[in-house]
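Private note to self, pasted from the team thread so I don't lose it. Backbone tokens:
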């Protein structure tokens, strides 16, 4: 893909005064040549790069093609204060100011077996959609647990009884609740998120999964996992 980008930039005539790159922590070194070739004036053109190293979920990190000092964005404009507290307890870097929006407390649900965890996820989504009146398209279930296929199947088995329709790794169904992995949903956001945490996240210290998954929620967040996982998360937050 990086080679294809450079070839395309070499063949096509279209150039730009400015290029903005988001999620730059996922760009390997091979991409930057093609990106810079998109500039009309490579010496004086504008290249803006947005990066959050805490969201580096893929092993493709490279060196940024800039020598300027970074400008730090220190205001959280996405989450409520409780979600900020839940997510940024796993963030490392320059301090980020919490938002002024108070919001609802994060809901923590502990269960050890995958079946009972799936029940908890389904009940939370049903509460938000069928009792509290959220639109299904405003709710997302994010999985940070392996293997994902078995978890998807557990949710499918509960769909009819819960009167829910899941959109498994599909984001184009307005009346369905999206179910996806944290890694695939990175860079996106939703009004309400259920984050399903696996013990391997704790054992392998994949704290970026917790940070990314939790901060996808704008207003409502629920976290489901084993007693061990949730205890560990609470202790780390302190």
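Design output:
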């Amino acid at each position: 893909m990086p080679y294809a980008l450079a070839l395309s930039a070499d063949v096509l005539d279209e150039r730009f005064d400015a290029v903005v790159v988001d999620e730059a922590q996922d760009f390997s070194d091979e991409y930057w040549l093609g990106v810079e070739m998109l500039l009309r004036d490579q010496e004086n053109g504008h290249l803006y790069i947005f990066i959050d190293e805490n969201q580096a979920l893929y092993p493709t990190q490279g060196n940024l093609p800039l020598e300027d000092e970074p400008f730090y964005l220190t205001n959280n404009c996405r989450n409520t204060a409780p979600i900020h507290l839940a997510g940024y307890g796993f963030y490392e870097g320059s301090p980020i100011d919490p938002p002024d929006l108070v919001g609802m407390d994060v809901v923590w649900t502990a269960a050890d077996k995958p079946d009972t965890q799936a029940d908890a996820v389904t009940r939370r989504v049903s509460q938000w959609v069928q009792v509290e009146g959220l639109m299904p398209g405003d709710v997302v279930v994010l999985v940070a647990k392996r293997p994902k296929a078995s978890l998807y199947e557990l949710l499918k088995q509960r769909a009819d009884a819960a009167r829910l329709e899941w959109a498994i790794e599909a984001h184009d169904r307005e009346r369905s609740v999206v179910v996806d992995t944290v890694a695939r949903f990175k860079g996106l956001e939703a009004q309400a998120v259920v984050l399903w945490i696996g013990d391997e996240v704790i054992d392998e210290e994949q704290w970026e999964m917790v940070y990314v998954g939790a901060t996808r929620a704008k207003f409502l967040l629920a976290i489901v996992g084993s007693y061990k996982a949730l205890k560990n998360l609470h202790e780390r937050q302190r």
